[in-house]
Hints:
Blueprint: H1 2-34, E1 38-47, E2 50-69, E3 75-85, E4 88-94, E5 97-104, E6 107-114, E7 118-136, E8 140-141
Antiparallel strand pairs: 1-2, 2-7, 3-6, 3-7, 3-8, 4-5, 4-7
Amino acid sequence: xxxxxxxxxxxxxxxxxxxxxxxxxxxxxxxxxxxxxxxxxxxxxxxxxxxxxxxxxxxxxxxxxxxxxxxxxxxxxxxxxxxxxxxxxxxxxxxxxxxxxxxxxxxxxxxxxxxxxxxxxxxxxxxxxxxxxxxxxxxxxxx
Length: 143
């Protein structure tokens, strides 16, 4: 009788483990397939205003940085951006409105000019992008 009881508990433990593993795998698949925002393998730095971001996989929106522009100044934000797979949009919001945007499907460099006082927030948005890199050197005042 003791041998049968031990065998039952071993089978029960293995079956429970298999069910838990399947539930975890299914949850992960559903999260990646239907999640509103997924960010995998991201690294970012902001050293004295120089922003560098690397994202392995992005689905949704990623906040890059926020900055304030003082009254009477014009600011230029140079950027260089690449994406290995997918298309993304780099955009800037001020007071709830998009004031600048650029669609990127491989690589793009340029400058974002901000000429009104206020707080600006920079975002990246994509349905799904892979191998995303953004380099934004320190902003400078336009004379």
